[in-house]
Amino acid sequence: MSQPPPPPPHQPSQPGGFGPPEPPQQPQDQPQQPGHGTQPPQPQQPGYGHPQPTPPPQPPGYGYPQAPPAGQPPQPPAGYGYPGGQPNPYAQPPVHGQPTAYGQPNPYGQPNPYGQPPVHGQPTAYGSQPGYGYPGPPPPPGGVPGGKRKGNAQVAIIVAAVAAIALIVGAGVWYSSSGGGDGKKDDTAGSTAGTGGKDDKDGGGDTAGGGTEKVPADTAGKILFRVPSPKVSDTTTVTVYGSWLTDKAYVKTGVAAVDGYDPDRGTKLWSIKLPGPVCTASRHTTDDDLTAIVYEPAMPTKAKPTHGCTQVAALDLDAGKKLWTRTVKNADQEVRLDNVTVSGRTVAVGGTSGGAAFDVSTAKPLWAPKPTDTCYDAGYGGGAKLVAVRRCGSYDERQLHIQTIDPKTGKVNSEYKMSPGISYAAVVSTDPLVVAADVGDSAGDGSGISDFFSIDNKTGKLRTRISAPGKDYAARCDGISKLEYCSGLAVGNDRLYIPTEAHDGTGQYTKTNEVVAFDLGTGRQTGQRADAGDGYTLTPLRMDGPDLIAYKRPPYNKGGQVVSLDGGSFKATTLLVNPSTPAAREAETGMLPTYSEALYSQGHLYLSGVFASTSSLKKDLVVAFGPTG
């Protein structure tokens, strides 16, 4: 089943017709043994982790140029990712109630990482002043929990709010788990931070390779349905994170609501009204399609622009109902929750002031971070395993602990301590374990990624470190609060698949790029390289067994495509070709996978927005493409 907003315009560097050269193997950090508490800081390792010079300003990046008028030569493309002359759909006015990177209210509307204004319920990130990776405010007085976790004997800090059962369907998030996007199981080839679709259960038919995605007899597609963006008050911009696919429905978060739609026709099957906006949502589900969201207890108003992201709820995506709602307390204060995920039957939530874990079916408290340690859980990565990112020490001497933990008990099974000075990390995959970080703020492009760290789940030892300079590669992560929110990359076959930045194509004003693979054991490129083709750029979505599902962003006069890349040969097989009519191109270019939620399964591609405001009243919340037959 079924992961961030657009970057500021910039022109990617030109890696050449075959993509950037393979970097030499990165020296590894010294591995750490699993355990509790703080150990002496490790020295910063040399090599690609060191800050790199910031590239000079470049002209506007590639996008969808408008068709040139008759008799005139084509014009260069306008802004990155959007049609010439069209504004960035996410460039919305500042709004009230935006939490900072530490989850606190930000009523003054600081700019966010990708050139977007802060929005209600959305933490700021890399682009906030003074910038991603810069020290933020210290944890609350008295410290925040860390080191060890307490068990059921200390679950008094977890306070049950209201156990509500209502007719609903769950909300979701950009990214899907691996192995088909419905979360029926995590892919045996490895998990991924890309988007996904539901598993193929009916068998039969030709598939692209070793996965389950069938190759249709006719790849021509059409618009199946469009859902208009919901109405928002003139003083508010709210988040609408959340989308999943099940065998029964396509599910999408609205403004303080979660709705289920017929996956072919788009007719609404059911709906639930929430008291406030959805702040964040798990990208993972259980085998029986249960998941979790975090939302506010009330809608923002001019007088009170935020009510805090304090409510965690479990959802049944098949039945279309909310199973329960809970809050987490630190002393007598409700904790603002930045992160939620699902692993096994456990819902894990976290914030700077505390966290908790619940049974997804019953809401039974399972464990919580111990509130007397010097560290705190910044958040969790779920799916096949449960991984905690713990921040330890003061804000100017911070060290991150990457811990694989038992989802039922919170016991730390292994731990890797990153070099001091790395302030934020995002969980790309939990099995195999891969995290991304912007070491020394060297990415230079707001992507939040300069290096990937491949870690052994069992021992906590570093397997390898992969350099991925922002000037060369196009994936991105939000490692500040939404720790699973990575896009444009995938993990499978013990490999990391990432796209290169776009570079000049062979035609006039055209761009293209490649997707390359890195071995998670050696850190070296495998030699697999998929070319997007002139005028197209290629973005990984998710794994399909051993194969990679990717989206081909088209030139201005064509529709996008979904392809399957064979896990061995990297040969591309076309699965869907979107229509090239003006209406279809307009709908598609408004929501591309890099800047929206994207789900693909069995010939169906769903693109959906993540913000709603008055400026989006005439825009789409969802655009669905599918077969013409």
From TrEMBL:
Residues 1-26, 52-77 have a biased composition (Pro residues). The lineage of its organism: Bacteria, Bacillati, Actinomycetota, Actinomycetes, Kitasatosporales. Residues 1-149, 177-216 are annotated as: Disordered. InterPro entries: PQQ_rpt_dom, Quinoprotein_ADH-like_sf, WD40/YVTN_repeat-like_dom_sf. Keywords: Membrane, Transmembrane, Transmembrane helix. Residues 311-524 form the Pyrrolo-quinoline quinone repeat domain. The keyword Disulfide bond does not apply. It holds the Pfam family PQQ_2. This is Pyrrolo-quinoline quinone repeat domain-containing protein. The chain crosses the membrane at residues 155-175. Residues 27-51 have a biased composition (Low complexity). The keyword Transmembrane applies.
